[in-house]
Amino acid sequence: MSTPLSSPHPAEENMTTRGNGLLVTTLAMAGIALALVGVGYFRGGREHIEGLHTALGTTARMLPLLLCAFVVAGMMQARSYLVSSSLSGWARGRGGKASCLGR
């Protein structure tokens, strides 16, 4: 029996239950970044502009790598979910030695 396409993936369920920790971490990093930009701005000069320029350059260089890493991680989770669900369906549908031999 196949599962409906609208059922949530187990990884998605796990992400929703742990979402607050990631939100807190993101807000903390944003606060630190804004504070550092503010310090650079109030010290005068172009420190904050140079820092933002360096950050954008680093982001541009790292973004393709990050996107590929997230695609690989997502595909690995989907693959493990698909393999485990198909194996459990196969094991439930057939039992014994004949099923292992493909008969």
Could you give a short account of the major beta sheet? Answer: none
Principal-axes shape call: elongated
Q: Percent helix among the residues?
A: over 70%
Distance between the termini: 20 Å
Listing every helix as H and every strand as E from the N terminus to the C terminus, the arrangement reads HHHH
Look at the structure and give the mean pLDDT.
79
- Main structural class: mainly alpha
Low-confidence stretches: none
Radius of gyration: 24 Å
Taken as a percent bin, the fraction of beta residues is under 5%
Briefly characterize the structure.
The protein is mainly α and 103 residues long. The chain is 81% helix and 0% strand. It has a domain at 19-89.
Structural summary, described in words:
81% of the residues lie in helices and 0% in strands. The protein has helices spanning 10-17, 19-42, 47-93, 97-100. The mean pLDDT is 79. The chain starts with 9 loop residues before the first helix and ends with a helix. It has a domain at 19-89. Helix 2 (19-42) runs antiparallel to helix 3. It is an all-alpha fold.
